[in-house]
Amino acid sequence: MTDIRETSAAYFTAWKNRDFDSLRALLADDVTFVGPMATLDNADDCVAGLKGMSQILDDIDVAKVAVDGDDVLTWFDLHTTVAPPAPTVNWQAIVDGKIVAIRVAFDPRAIVAAG
Q1: Which residues form the domain of 16?
Q2: pLDDT in tens, 16-25
Q3: What span, in angstroms and rounded, lies between the C-alpha atoms of 4 and 13?
Q4: What's the rounded mean pLDDT across residues 37-54?
Q5: Are strands 38-40 and 57-68 parallel, antiparallel or unpaired?
Q6: In this structure, are residues 100 and 34 in contact, taking their beta carbons and an 8 Å threshold?
Q7: pTM of the predicted model over 0.90
Q8: Three-class SS of residue 20?
Q9: What CATH number is attached to the domain comprising 13?
Q10: In the prediction, which pLDDT does 115 show?
Q11: Strand arrangement of the beta sheet that strand 71-80 belongs to
Q12: How does pLDDT run across 49-64, given as a tens digit for each residue?
């Protein structure tokens, strides 16, 4: 899979479906992740973090996707079982079909308060 829009969409589909083998296959081994609830520097830790979030994940409602070079920005509402939907942006850098960097921004206060 070389189209970065397809790679990014496959990431969200795999996470939503809790298909962590497929999700892991999309990540470079040394992928970096920076978000309000974690900073990680490898694929296995990234998958573990997404597995943790999937325990409260209810839906990912994508509103907009923008592609710029090797970067994909996805704006979505993160629906959880513990808090109101959180408007979220996910910025992925994708090189040679692999996600090499993920940056996420959302307000985690309601999720943290529920935990």
Answers
A1: 4-114
A2: 999 999 999 9
A3: 14
A4: 96
A5: unpaired
A6: no
A7: yes
A8: helix
A9: 3.10.450.50
A10: 77
A11: 38-40, 27-35, 98-105, 86-95, 71-80, 57-68
A12: 999 999 999 999 999 9
Least confident of 1-5, 33-37, 60-64: 1-5
Q: What is the CA angle 52-56-59, rounded to 5?
A: 115
For residues 1 and 7, is the Cβ–Cβ distance under 8 A? yes
Which of helix, strand or coil describes residue 37? Answer: coil
Taking CA atoms, 68 is separated from 28, 93, 97, in Å, by: 20, 10, 15
Domains in the chain, number: 1
By residue count, the chain amounts to 115
Token pair 């830790």: residue: 45
Tell me which H or E stretch contains 65.
Answer: strand 57-68
Q: Give the pLDDT score at 1.
A: 46
